[in-house]
Structure formats: C-alpha cells, structure tokens
Specification:
single chain, mainly alpha, Arc Repressor Mutant, subunit A, three-stranded antiparallel beta sheet, 70% helix, elongated
Length: 197
C-alpha cells in the first residue's frame, strides 16, 4: 500500500471512530477536522508535571474570567443606556429575533433562577422596553415582546456590542475561533446533560 492509500485508510478509520464516539456521521468537513485535530493533538508538554486537578482548576478559572471580562466591557457600553446589565441587554437581544417569548422561556435561555429572571423582565417592562400580554395557548403564562422603544435601544447599542464581541475573541484568527467554539460546545453539551439529568 503506497503512502497516499495509507493516509486515506487512516482518514476512513478516524471517520469510523468519530461515528462511534459522537453517535453520528460528521455533518461537514469542518466539524470532522476540528474533532480530528482534538483527537491527534499532543498535549504532553502542556500537562507535564501538572496534575489533572491543577489543570481542571486553571480551566475553570479561565472560563469564569471570560464572563467577568465580558461584564466589564458591557458595563462601559451601557453607561449612557437605559439598561444597566449584560442580562438586560441579552433579554432584549433574544426578543429581537422572536415575535414574543413566554417569560419562563426567556429566563430559561439565560439559565437564571425564576425570581432573578422575573426581576429583570419587570425592570425592562417598567422602562418601557418590553410589553407583556396573555399567552393564547396557556392562560397561566404571560408572553413578552419588544416595544418600539426596546427595538430602538437594541439598534442603538448593537455597534458597540459588536466591538465587545470582537474584544472577547481577542486577536485570534478564524481557525482559532472555530476551535474554541468546538470545545466550548462540547463543554456546553456536557453541562446541559448534567443539569437536566
């Protein structure tokens, strides 16, 4: 078998391994390549002389720091806005892409406790950025949607928020961003299952 055929054979073996581990075939080349890169990545130097506990601790700290950086950036953007927190902005942004949402649906997207989420919604209602109305399919539920003022506020903030998103991804190139998204999705999938079980 010549070298090219050996490479093809190895790729087929990795595709089979992907299917076994992920329970599906790769949906596209990018997904497969990101998985493959992770599979063959040699991290010996990275974890040399470090325990798994130490690595887990550092990873957790670095992930939590990202949230703190994001909140600091957003705080500056919102200095002259009628909203004051990243969660308030995110609630409005979610509603920009929906005609309306049930209150608990919106809160669920943000993984917040009900009292905290209701408090945020009430602040946005009070400021005239949202309006609430009865859910036609479930009389016990209330739905919320953006008001004209809410839409204008989102449109006003979006350019500055896109600069925040750019800062959060630092100076990484598109390949590096794609790698991080792949690994973060793995983390997110794990935690979604852990929380729901």
């Amino acid at each position: 078998m010549n070298r090219s055929l050996k490479i093809v054979d190895n790729v087929v073996n990795y595709i089979n391994k992907f299917s076994q581990e992920c329970g599906k075939e790769p949906s596209n080349l990018t997904e497969f390549m990101l998985w493959l890169n992770h599979k063959i990545f040699d991290d010996y130097d990275f974890h040399k002389d470090r325990t798994e506990k130490e690595i887990n601790l550092e990873l957790t700290h670095l992930l939590t720091y990202q949230n703190k950086y994001f909140k600091r950036y957003v705080k500056k953007v919102l200095l002259h806005s009628s909203i004051s927190t990243a969660d308030e902005y995110s609630f409005l942004l979610h509603l920009k892409f929906s005609d309306s949402l049930r209150k608990m649906e919106l809160i669920g997207f943000h993984m917040l406790e009900a009292p905290t989420g209701i408090e945020i919604i009430n602040r946005l209602l009070k400021k005239g950025l949202l309006e609430e109305f009865d859910d036609q399919d479930d009389k016990r539920s209330k739905r919320v949607r953006l008001t004209k003022t809410g839409k204008e506020e989102i449109e006003k903030l979006e350019p500055a928020m896109h600069e925040v998103y750019s800062k959060m991804s630092a100076n990484m190139d598109l390949k590096e961003k794609a790698h991080i998204i792949y690994f973060l999705k793995k983390l997110d999938d794990f935690h979604q299952l852990a929380i729901n079980n």
